[in-house]
């Protein structure tokens, strides 16, 4: 699938935003700590991926009812759903001047019901000509997402016959439907009932 930049200028994917707030001291602190051990862009991007995937539990898996949507809040509170964790990873990448975009899949149950939007991050490392999608949702039995610049290692592969979709658009900030749902939710149980089903 060919990914399509929402903004033609790649600098948009380095910008500070309302959700991707990599100018926040906490984001900078985590980024610096990771970069001290992983100074080159590739190893840093992989280490930041593992940090968000493995040390920030997906709130559905952990049972945490808090809803986070700003990168600094995700890192501070140590929780979030896929959208929030993607924002945190994008912020950590941008904090080290690595272009990062938010992108999405539409997933469904095995019978095609209950469609929901799933959040991913696309990274553009120095020397690379193509964006590479990453999934920091967090692994669990049946889910084994890994950092990869070649063959994608996402949590799920879409099944078009069930109406699932890989959306090609790359966004600088969360899609308005995604951000709106996060901001409006007083807790994760409410959020689960209001997650967007399509973009």
TrEMBL record:
What broad taxonomic lineage does this protein's source fall under?
Bacteria, Bacillati, Actinomycetota, Actinomycetes, Kitasatosporales
Q: Where is the Transglutaminase-like domain?
A: 31-134
Annotated source species: Streptomyces gardneri
Annotated protein name in UniProt: Transglutaminase
Task: Return the Pfam families for the record.
Answer: Transglut_core
- Gene3D superfamilies of this UniProt entry? 3.10.620.30
């Amino acid at each position: 699938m060919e990914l399509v930049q929402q903004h033609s200028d790649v600098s948009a994917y380095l910008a500070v935003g309302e959700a991707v707030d990599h100018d926040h001291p906490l984001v900078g602190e985590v980024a610096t700590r990771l970069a001290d051990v992983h100074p080159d862009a590739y190893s840093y991007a992989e280490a930041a991926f593992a940090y968000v995937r493995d040390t920030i539990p997906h709130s559905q898996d952990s049972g945490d009812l808090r809803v986070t949507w700003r990168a600094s809040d995700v890192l501070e509170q140590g929780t979030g759903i896929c959208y929030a964790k993607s924002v945190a990873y994008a912020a950590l990448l941008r904090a080290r001047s690595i272009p990062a975009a938010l992108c999405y899949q539409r997933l469904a149950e095995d019978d095609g019901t209950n469609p929901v939007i799933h959040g991913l991050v696309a990274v553009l490392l120095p020397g690379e000509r193509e964006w590479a999608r990453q999934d920091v949702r967090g692994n669990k039995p049946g889910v084994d997402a890994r950092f990869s610049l070649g063959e994608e290692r996402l949590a799920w592969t879409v099944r078009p016959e069930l109406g699932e979709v890989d959306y090609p658009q790359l966004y600088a900030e969360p899609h308005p439907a995604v951000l709106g749902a996060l901001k409006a939710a007083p807790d994760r149980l409410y959020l689960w009932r209001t997650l967007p089903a399509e973009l």
